[in-house]
Amino acid sequence: MYTADTLSRAVDPKAELNAETEEDIRVYVDAIVKSMPVTSNKRNQSVEETKKDDQLQELLGIIRDGWPETKQQCPVRVREYWNIRSELFEADGIIFKGSKIVVPTTMRRFMLNKIHEGHLGIEKCKKRAREVIYWPRINTDITEMVQSWTSCLMYRPKQLAESLHPHDVPNRPWGKVAVDLFTLNNREYMVIVDYYSQFIEVCTMTSTSSKAVINHMKAVFARHGTPCELMSDNGPQFASQEFQSFAKEWDFHHSTSSPYYPQSNGLAENAVKIVKKLILKSQHNGQDIHRALQVYRSSPLACGKSPAELLYNRRLRSNLPMLDSLLDNQQLGQYSIGEGKKGGS
């Protein structure tokens, strides 16, 4: 195992290091090894493909023997790693950039497909990748790949989104949620979205009666808890006496949007648009809508945290390889929430 010490920032392992620093390096690398990607198949594949990758083998030699003093002295094939050399190290045959796996050339197309499996936009795909994997020009490769997908071109927004009525962001997850119903390809759905985390729940409905809506809501509330406030439109399912009794029994405040200004339930309407696109793209490509929802829930928002992180205080393990340590519980402060989401519906 070889590391460019992230503590001392020394990039030459031949440089003099005291015993304490050497121990720090050993502890750091041991921690990485213990928190390697959780599936051994993917780990073994990464090791084998790294062995076959001439560029990464040359890079490994530089990491082990020490970087030259100038970029010009560096072998041409590995110069593109020069600016990040202090972050690179090797552990059990895999090269890492910090906590991100450096993906061998032969696995990059596979990883691009995994990044885009939920058929999110270019920026969300980049944010997903940025958390766990790396290779030079990965952002360019993601852009070109997303732009080449027929379904993404077919279902991309045809007009700019209307401005939505602003709402205060709650100070905790699942304190306020919004709900909406929609029909797509002759099937009925209900979405429930959390104002704080933008986490979306999707229910497939056989009926849109008040009773059916209430039963599905009970299942969602059993998982996440009862919100303090629920926002809906003025549909008959929500205006019924049965639904009002449900709100009273389960102790939440039921607010409704203005019939003259439906954008006031804009968060739910936006969630409907997201889910519709996920369903259509998944059907077009013969892919699993549940995987698409998992990818959406685990992709970072503008604040840098994913809906799952904001709701659960942890990342979801999805379809990209990541260090086991990245799946640990987190402590999120209010600073994580407001940026990029203030008042947005």
Automatic annotation (TrEMBL):
Domain Integrase catalytic: 169-336
SUPFAM superfamilies: Ribonuclease H-like (SSF53098)
Any single biological process term in GO: DNA integration
InterPro entries: Integrase_cat-core (IPR001584), Integrase_H2C2 (IPR041588), Retrovirus_Pol_polyprotein (IPR050951), RNaseH-like_sf (IPR012337), RNaseH_sf (IPR036397)
Domain of life: Eukaryota
Annotated Pfam families: Integrase_H2C2, rve
GO molecular-function terms, A-Z: nucleic acid binding
Protein name per Swiss-Prot or TrEMBL: Integrase catalytic domain-containing protein
